[in-house]
Each structure stands twice: as C-alpha cells, then as structure tokens.
Amino acid sequence: xxxxxxxxxxxxxxxxxxxxxxxxxxxxxxxxxxxxxxxxxxxxxxxxxxxxxxxxxxxxxxxxxxxxxxxxxxxxxxxxxxxxxxxxxxxxxxxxxxxxxxxxxxxxxxxxxxxxxxxxxxxxxxxxxxxxxxxxxxxxxxxxxxxxxxxxxxxxxxxxxxxxxxxxxxxxxxxxxxxxxxxxxxxxxxxxxxxxxxxxxxxxxxxxxxxxxxxxxxxxxxxxxxxxxxxxxxxxxxxxxxxxxxxxxxxxxxxxxxxxxxxxxxxxxxxxxxxxxxxxxxxxxxx
Length: 287
Prior knowledge:
Elements: E1 3-7, H1 12-20, E2 26-30, H2 40-49, E3 54-57, H3 64-69, H4 71-92, E4 95-101, H5 125-140, E5 144-149, E6 151-153, H6 166-175, E7 180-183, E8 186-187, E9 190-192, H7 194-198, H8 200-204, E10 209-213, H9 221-231, H10 236-242, E11 243-246, E12 255-256, H11 262-266, H12 274-284
Parallel strand pairs: 1-2, 1-3, 3-4, 4-5, 5-10, 6-9, 7-11, 8-12
Helix pairs in contact: 2-4, 4-5, 6-9, 9-12
C-alpha cells in the first residue's frame, strides 16, 4: 500500500481526502505540532527523514490579510518551506503533490479562463507565494504534480469541516434570514471538493507537471449565489431579499481568474460545470 505523508492533515481538503481514500492508501498525517513551517531548514530535515512514498502538501497560511500584513513570515510558510519540502522529496526519491491556487491569476486584466501556459500575475502576497513555488517546482523537480484549485465548496461530514464556500455562504444567509451581498464584479470557477477527494488516486498518478483542477463557470459570484439559492429551494421573494448584488466591490477592476481544466480532463480527470457540481453536492447530501 502506498504511504502518503499529508500536510495540513486536519484542514478541509486533507481531511476529505483521507476520509474518501481510507483503506486505499496508508496516510501519515502531518500536523502543525509535528513541524514548524516558519523554519524551512527544519521542514527540509523533517521531510527528508519521513517514511513515505509521496508527500501531499496542502499546509499553508491562506488568509489574505495575514499574508499582506506579515509578508516575511508567510513567505517562510507558504513559499520557502514548500520549496524546502520539494528539495527533500527530490533528494529522497519521493513524489510531491502540491496544492496551488487560482489566485496566481488575480492580477490579470484580460478575461479567463486561463490554462497552464498562461503566465501568472498576482496582486496579492498569497498568490505571489504560490506562483513562486509553482515556478520552482517546474524548474527543479523531476517527479511532481502541482494542482491549481479553484474556490472549493462542500458540506460538513464527520471529522470534516468545510472551508467557507459559495454553498455554505448562501445556506447561512437563507437559514439565518440574513441579507448577504455577493459581488457582481467577479467570475471564478467553483468546484465541489468531493471531485478532488474521489479522484485523489488519479491525481497522484498524473504525469509529472502542472494541472488546473476546476469545474467550469460562466456566472458572476452574485449569479452563482442566486443559482445555489434556487437549487436549495428558496422562493423568488426570499432570493430577492436575501441574496443581494454587491456592485461596489471590485468595481474598479472586474476580477476574472477562472481556470481552464482541459489538460486535466484530457488525461481522465472528471470535472463538470458549477451548476452540475451544485446538483451533485446536494444529491450526495440528500437535498
């Protein structure tokens, strides 16, 4: 059985991957108490000595404000330690699977979706940190998979708490009767997280390289929120009252950092549309 070291082991995606693939792989969960990512040399020593065939690296500080307010500290965690883990993998013959992000494209002014040949351009520190690791892996590693994810969504499962996503945000607005704004000035892919968990084995076995993993979406975030509310069975009056357009946020520059996942689909990764993913998620959870 393949032995996989998984960082950020208690986070949403890592927890979901472990739940869906229990019995298929032997997971070695790596938590914050096991290694200090603020010290890249420590991370390199740790992953050089760990007994694993593959390292699935999800750990990061993805809080935008933290990355902007502490660029030096988060560079160590998000960029330098990820590169150190890559060096350890290269030296010890482990494959590295690295989670990257759509945010590497948040500085582009041209419309998406963007494929893997598009040069990253990010206006946020987090996006810049991930882009730097992406580039280093491409130039330095012989055996790796970089997976750029879109905004993921899902629902809670035992031991799995979802990160904030479009489905959770809309569901909260409806359940608490709280009018909530969603931006009209943004298009981004939104993907059911179970697609990654269910295809984790295929992702780990992909030919070495960079892949976009995202379900297609042509809607703005506001339009996406309305679609979710409709699928949840909200009446038209409640949707008008609770799912509100935010025309101010990003009004100075429309954001479009959608990912083109054609490369991943061409090698057998199954991805759909945002609407299909919403229906799939709700069906899975009995809605």
